[in-house]
């Protein structure tokens, strides 16, 4: 018996007794929610996702398994939660790899989510084996050439465009574009005077400067404990990608701050509203889940997908939500980069062309941030972890500490 009941088999019987019997049979068979998985064809199953790409460094890496039957059709119901087994190990048999691989999460629709967390870097690489009964699934075993860095390995990709394409970052977020409309230029000198003057007694304000991919900050106000969120996100981001030098304020209070419509100053906030000018960071809940993902709490964004009972809103079932930790890092990078520069006119022209409009003109990159990001006297370095949990060799062919990312402009 496969997951799909073949309706043609049930001939229309004239006898009421027989049809009642058939109805009873159908009733009996539908009352077993887990269908027999004999129809699964291991080699026709599909496996895909960022967790198969060594360069997609995420706190928890993940990929998907789609069960496919011998006719080549996707299963749309769960074939049972223990259908697939996954083993992940180092390609180097002498390397002791610390790794956590929970069983695949049954998404209830014929697909599974496999997550794994590396606690150390696999320098030579990883071997991922997915099996159904004893047969190899799809193209298993998968060989992921190393180094496969773990979350706490401080090894930023120097070229942000390479990083963004590896991450397959989604196109520019409308919200970000809208938020930045009010700030064609950001004068750092003005920002440093105006923001503390107007907002330092309003609760929680954190002043950050990222210089040479190091994070510095000072706090203004009484309620700044939530800096642990922003610290952790910025540290995680700078371990993954080289962030341009940038200086900004984050409001960690739970209310947006900037209400001026003219001469507004840009403040990053966890929350926004239509009548304030704060630049909204990806939502607090997502931040929280991302942090828990970083810290290893099990009830994270990725694990909750298996718990479909709690997830019936469309956005929580969307691919966006699936990959939200990945999208989150993309958004954070974009946001910081938007503080520095405008969308280039070249990109705008390209978009107009794609929309069937011709645009002829000169193309520039326009700098939004004016002034040099500086470590304020009260700012301290927010250090990366420096213990055994962070130990790794950062191996990047092109890695140079002083590479100036803006050279290519
Ligand atoms: C089967 O599932 C995969 C993954 O979700 C999807 O890309 C593919 O289009 C599906 N195939 C069919 C025939 O629906």
Automatic annotation (TrEMBL):
Domain Glycosyl transferase CAP10 per the UniProt entry, residue ranges: 242-408
SUPFAM superfamilies the record matches: E set domains
Short name of one Pfam family: Filamin
Substrates-to-products reaction catalysed: L-seryl-[EGF-like domain protein] + UDP-alpha-D-glucose = 3-O-(beta-D-glucosyl)-L-seryl-[EGF-like domain protein] + UDP + H(+); L-seryl-[EGF-like domain protein] + UDP-alpha-D-xylose = 3-O-(beta-D-xylosyl)-L-seryl-[EGF-like domain protein] + UDP + H(+)
UniProt xrefs under Gene3D superfamilies: Immunoglobulins
Segment forming the signal sequence: 1-37
Key words of the record: Endoplasmic reticulum, Glycoprotein, Glycosyltransferase, Signal, Transferase
GO biological process, one term: nervous system development
GO function term, MF aspect, one: glucosyltransferase activity
Filamin repeat windows: 37-146
Pathway annotation: Protein modification; protein glycosylation
Record flagged with keyword Signal: yes
Statement: the UniProt record of this protein carries the keyword Signal: yes
Entry's Gene Ontology cellular component terms: endomembrane system
Family as reported in the entry's similarity comment: Belongs to the KDELC family.
Record protein name field: Protein O-glucosyltransferase 3
Organism: Neolamprologus brichardi (Fairy cichlid)
């Amino acid at each position: 018996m496969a997951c799909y009941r073949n309706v043609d088999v049930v001939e229309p019987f004239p006898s009421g007794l027989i049809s009642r019997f058939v109805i009873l049979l159908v009733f009996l068979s539908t009352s077993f929610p887990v269908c027999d998985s004999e129809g699964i064809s291991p080699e026709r199953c599909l496996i895909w996702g960022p967790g198969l790409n060594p360069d997609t460094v995420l706190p928890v890496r993940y990929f998907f398994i789609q069960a496919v039957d011998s006719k080549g059709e996707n299963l749309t119901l769960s074939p049972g939660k223990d259908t697939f087994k996954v083993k992940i190990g180092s390609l180097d048999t002498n390397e002791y790899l610390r790794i956590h691989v929970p069983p695949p999460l049954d998404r209830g629709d014929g697909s599974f989510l496999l997550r794994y967390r590396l606690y150390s870097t696999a320098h030579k690489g990883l071997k991922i084996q997915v099996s159904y009964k004893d047969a190899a699934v799809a193209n298993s075993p998968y060989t992921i050439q190393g180094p496969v860095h773990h979350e706490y390995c401080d090894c930023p990709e120097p070229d942000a465009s390479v990083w963004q394409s590896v991450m397959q970052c989604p196109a520019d977020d409308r919200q970000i574009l809208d938020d930045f409309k009010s700030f064609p230029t950001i004068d750092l000198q003005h920002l440093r005077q105006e923001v503390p003057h107007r907002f330092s007694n309003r609760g929680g304000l954190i002043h950050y400067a990222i210089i040479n991919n190091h994070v510095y900050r000072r706090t203004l106000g009484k309620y700044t404990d939530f800096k642990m969120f922003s610290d952790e996100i910025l540290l995680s981001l700078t371990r993954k990608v080289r962030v341009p030098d940038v200086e900004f304020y984050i409001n960690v209070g739970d209310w947006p701050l900037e209400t001026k419509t003219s001469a507004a100053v840009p403040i990053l906030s966890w929350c926004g509203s239509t009548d304030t000018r704060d630049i909204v960071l990806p939502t607090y809940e997502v931040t929280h889940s991302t942090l828990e993902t970083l810290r290893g709490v099990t009830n994270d964004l990725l694990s909750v997908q298996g718990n479909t009972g709690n997830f019936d809103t469309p956005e929580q079932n969307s691919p966006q939500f699936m990959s939200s930790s990945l999208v989150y890092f993309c958004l954070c990078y974009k946001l910081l980069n938007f503080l520095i520069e405008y969308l280039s006119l070249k990109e705008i022209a390209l978009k107009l062309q794609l929309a069937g409009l011709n645009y002829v003109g000169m193309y520039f990159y326009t700098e939004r941030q004016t002034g040099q990001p500086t470590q304020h006297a009260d700012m301290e370095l927010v250090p990366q972890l420096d213990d055994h949990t962070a130990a790794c060799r950062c191996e990047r062919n092109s890695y140079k500490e002083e590479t100036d990312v803006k050279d290519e402009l």
